[in-house]
Amino acid sequence: MLPGMTANRGYHHGDLRRALLAAAVEAIGESGPAALSLRDLARRAGVSHAAPAHHFGDKAGLLTALAVEGFDLLAGALGRAGGDLLETGVAYVRFAVDHRAHFEVMFAPGLYRADDPEVAAARARAGAALRGGIAALPARPAAEPDRDALAAWSIVHGFATLWLAGALPPAAGPDPESAARSVIRRLFE
Amino acid sequence: MLPGMTANRGYHHGDLRRALLAAAVEAIGESGPAALSLRDLARRAGVSHAAPAHHFGDKAGLLTALAVEGFDLLAGALGRAGGDLLETGVAYVRFAVDHRAHFEVMFAPGLYRADDPEVAAARARAGAALRGGIAALPARPAAEPDRDALAAWSIVHGFATLWLAGALPPAAGPDPESAARSVIRRLFE
């Protein structure tokens, strides 16, 4: 906390919640979600030790809120791709690169309450946005929408995960979006 | 340690190393690689506190050895698919499901010495086995081997990662191998 600052000073209720989520994103970016503690979050946000527990209950509650925020952001990003499958896939990879901490939490469901109704609703919105891209594919005799959606999800999730892990060979180039575009195109050939 | 057992009793040098790696796999399966400690490993293997450091130096050294072992196992599994891309992809997913702890460490290169020469050599063997599957694809006018290999790697890595995260919808079915087979086939159509 800054000198002279009292606990929670200057925060409205919603602002403090957002500040704590932002502090969580910062902490996860540095050390991953497993190392996160509510005490560390309170220190980062400059608020009382009790504030994170008041807002989120416990660490799983905080990560649940972060997962909801992440799936909402992902649904928005995919939706803005306008139903084009290639652009939807590129938007998925861009989301993972730009929101690495959210992405890491969202796909580590052991860390949060994955059956929370808000998580389920946000995840369903993201899923619907992804399937919106699939539906725009030209009709094919052998089309199987569930299977095609899973193939598209797998290829963009795998590319994003390998990129974030630094596992890709130099031939993939320095720009995740253009490399992803080239890889996703492989699904259309 | 069992009552009456002396430090390292009953272990030949190579056996102790293998016992420590097996204990690490068990510990990672329970709590992930971030929570692993050499002290906990020694306790699990029933050996002196000094034994893990003697064999691996530090935690990063232990995880480096686990990554080498993982890439070797992966190269063997992919190689046994006999150069068929579909079977190579299914073998990748089977490896991830059967060797979850290795898989998690291999693709978290911040946790170990990813530039270690033994890691690089084992990773290159696994990469060559994956590309062996790609090379067996029928020739196509627009074939781009680097890009096709990255697409195949992305789709199997993404499928395996989503499966391990418990993120897939019920429509994917209960069996990872048959679901993977159906998804990978999408690359050939």
TrEMBL record, chains A, B:
Q: Which residues bind DNA?
A: 37-56
One GO MF term attached to the UniProt entry: transcription cis-regulatory region binding
Alphabetically sorted, this entry's keywords are: DNA-binding, Transcription, Transcription regulation
Q: Is Cell cycle found in the keyword set?
A: no
The answer to whether keyword Transcription regulation applies is: yes
HTH tetR-type domain mapped to chain residues:
14-74
Q: What is this protein called?
A: TetR family transcriptional regulator
Taxon lineage: Bacteria, Bacillati, Actinomycetota, Actinomycetes, Micromonosporales
